[in-house]
Structure formats: structure tokens, C-alpha cells
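Hey team,

Filing this mostly as a record. A colleague (T.K.) asked me to run one chain through the structure pipeline before their review meeting, and I want the input and output archived in the tracker in case anyone asks later how it was produced. No errors, nothing strange. Just documentation.

Input sequence:
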Amino acid sequence: MGTIMVLFTLLGGIMLSAQSSVNGTFSRKAGTIEATLLTFITGSIFLAILILFFGEGNVLKILEAPKWQLSAAFLGTLYGLFVITAVPKIGVIATNIAGIVGQLVIGILIDHFGWFNSLIFLFDLKRFFALLFMFVALYFIYTGNKRSSEETYA
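Output structure:
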């Protein structure tokens, strides 16, 4: 089951990059906020259909959730907006690496301190080097993109 979840996540990452690229291009014509709105309206319709056929829970339980947990929807919307804004300016790979680095930074903090009732995994040397290498990758990808775009316009 773990291997299938890794493959699902890998496919999700592939789809996220493709979606980021398409939305970035679309936002140049329709606008950033408008492209983000289309993404979430379309996603909502798709999920409503999935719930009708495959839903196992109770949508009304949303009303019983602690208010702080509902912030996840707002955070996801902001993430989409930021990605759609960034892709046309710095490219898909730099946007995705920056997003991953951000996820790793907050993930390490969440794991280390056990925030949001998560398991605790202490920050150690392995995690430090993993994070350092991701920052190095972001630096090289971003500066490589900058150089390539300067050469294109020269």
C-alpha cells in the first residue's frame, strides 16, 4: 500500500506541475485571481460529483470542525494564488522547488514540535542536510532560470 501511495503522490506532483504551467499561462489572459477562481470552482464541481458517487463521510460534519481546522481551505487557496502568480515570472520548476522548500521548512517545525496533533520527529542532522540541499537546489534552479531568461531577451 505504501508503494501505491508514493506513486499516487508522484502522479499528483506531475499533475500539479502541469496545472501550474497551464494556470500560469491562462492567468496572463484572464488574470491571476480569475485563473485561481476557475481552478477552485472546477475542482469543487469535480469533488461534488466524486462525493455523490464515492463519498463515505458526511459533508455537514464540516460545521462541527474546530474553526482553526477550517483555515486549511484558506491556506490552500492562497497556495494556488501564489503559485499561479509565480509561474509566469520564475517558471514551473523554480516555483515548485520553492513550494517544496517551504513545505519542508514548515513540515520540520510541525514534526519537531508536534503541532496540530502530529507525530513528533525531532530535527536532526539528516533533516538539516536534506533542507540545506533543497535550498541549494532552489538557488541553482532559480539562478539558472534567471540566466536563461536574460539570454533569451538579449
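Quick notes for T.K.: The radius of gyration is 18 Å. The mean pLDDT is 89.
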